Structures are given as C-alpha cells and as structure tokens.
Automatic annotation (TrEMBL):
This is Response regulator. The modification 4-aspartylphosphate is found at residue 55. It comes from Streptomyces hesseae. It comes from the Bacteria. Keywords: Coiled coil, Phosphoprotein.
Amino acid sequence: MVQKAKILLVDDRPENLLALEAILSALDQTLVRASSGEEALKALLTDDFAVILLDVQMPGMDGFETAAHIKRRERTRDIPIIFLTAINHGPHHTFRGYAAGAVDYISKPFDPWVLRAKVSVFVELYMKNCQLREQASLLRLQLENGGHSGRTGVLEPQEPAGLLAELSARLAAVEEQAEALSKQLDESADAAAVATAAHLERKLTGLRRALDALEPGAGSGASPVPSQT
C-alpha cells in the first residue's frame, strides 16, 4: 500500500482552512491543519510533509517569520512552501516571500484548480523522492545481507547481481516518469516547480551512478556516487 503524503495547511482562520481542505481533498492525501506559526513548527518536529501552504498574515508569528524558522531547520529546509496572502503590496512584498524561501506566492482569491495543480506537482515529486530513498535503503540492506533482506512483498531473495538488475529496472521506470513530469512542467512555465523537478533529476542521476558503480566490471576501486542534494 502506497503511503499518503502529508500536506501542511497553516492559517489562523478556520474558514480558510476549511476552504483549503475542500480544494485539496480531491488529491486524496493527508491534510494537516495548523492555526498558527507555532503550531506549524510543532507539527514539523514529528512529521514529514510534501508541501506547506502558509498564510502570510497571521497574529503573532506571521508567515514570513514561520518560513524563516522552517528554512533554518535541517530537517525541514527543503520542504516546498507556497505562500497564500490576501494582501498585495506589489513586487517588493512578493520578493519578500521568495526571499523567505517560498517556491510560490499566490494572492487570494485564487483559482482552486490552479492551486490544486501546483500542490499535486510537489506531492508527486515528494512521492518520487520517497520511492528513491526506499530503493536505496533496500539496496544497502540487500548488499549487507548478501542479497537476502528477509522482507516479503518487496524483492525476492536473490544474488546481488540479480538485485542490482531489478533495482536498475525500477530506477529506469522512475527516471521515465520524472522525464515525463519535467516535460509537463516545461510546458507550464512554472519556474519554481521546474527547479524542484531539476533537483529530483539530480538525485536520480546520483542514484543511477551509484548503481552503475556497483555493476560487475565497473572498475576496481569504484565506489557509489552519493545522490546530489
């Protein structure tokens, strides 16, 4: 069973959170509410999130300050943040949002379809990253145990060479999906999403090099190349 991604919704107004849940429910992911910046930071201590939708104007810790705290933490610094705001003070205000680490900045009222489409891109990228981490972890476990992980339903016990071939095939499938996603993003001209997709492609390239280095005959002294971050 594929685990659902978590999406963090941060807004001090319950009606806004309810509206976001209605828009994003079609994605069939886990939606987590936070009514303040402090509550959002607390949720980020224990859970991993695919994307954060963060209201700018909140009492106490506003969206900009909350984003600054998120980006300072090693655990959360790479989580995409989409700022949502009802105020529009021109380019300078928008620039402040991007400077705080946002991947997108959307003014209210926004098009529900556009917001759902943007969030779905980051959810898909998150799921691909999770799949890559799982495959890399499985590879290490299999190699440490001579190709026998003891886990059922993932890979059958086999020799390392057969394991590498199967993981290479699985990686190829992910690479194909990532390439299709990148082409789709190129057409949408969403610079932030394109940059995130490029980050995923760099990780895929690193994992491909690591697998190639483990292939028999790859050369003496060859060692896996770590994924780029």
